[in-house]
Amino acid sequence: DAGSMTVGGELNKLASNVATGRNMAGIHWRTDGIESLKLGEAVALSVLRDQRATYNEDFAGFTLTRFDGTPITV
């Protein structure tokens, strides 16, 4: 259903498809793909934290859902 699509969900699918494609191509082990998703998430959260610190206006932060399903506000 197109009504339930979210930007976060689509980005998660993209990241998963890249990792899976690299695994299927024989470039990485399956565990490398899993760990790369965790690393990419950590880097993205770090970048968002850095960006938030540069805003001059009042800003409540970025709210998103992590790969493990837990919500986080940066």
Structural notes for this entry:
The structure is a single chain. A hairpin with a 5-residue loop joins strand 1 and strand 2. By secondary structure, the protein is mostly helical. The longest helix has 23 residues, at 30-52. The protein starts with 6 loop residues before the first helix and ends with a strand. The protein is globular. The protein contains two helices and two strands; from the N terminus they run ααββ. The protein has a two-stranded antiparallel ribbon. The model has no long low-confidence stretch (mean pLDDT 82).
What's the helix and strand layout?
Elements: H1 7-24, H2 30-52, E1 63-65, E2 71-73
Antiparallel strand pairs: 1-2
Helix pairs in contact: 1-2
Instruction: Enumerate the spans where pLDDT stays under 50 for 5 or more consecutive residues.
Output: none
Q: Write down the overall mean pLDDT.
A: 82
Count every beta strand, where a strand is a DSSP E run of 2 or more residues.
Answer: 2
Secondary-structure element series: HHEE
Give the overall form: globular
- Structural class per helix/strand content? mainly alpha
Oligomeric description of these chains: single chain
Provide a compact summary of the structure:
The chain has 74 residues and is mostly helical. It is 55% helix and 8% strand.
List keywords for this structure.
single chain, 74 residues, mainly alpha, 2 helices
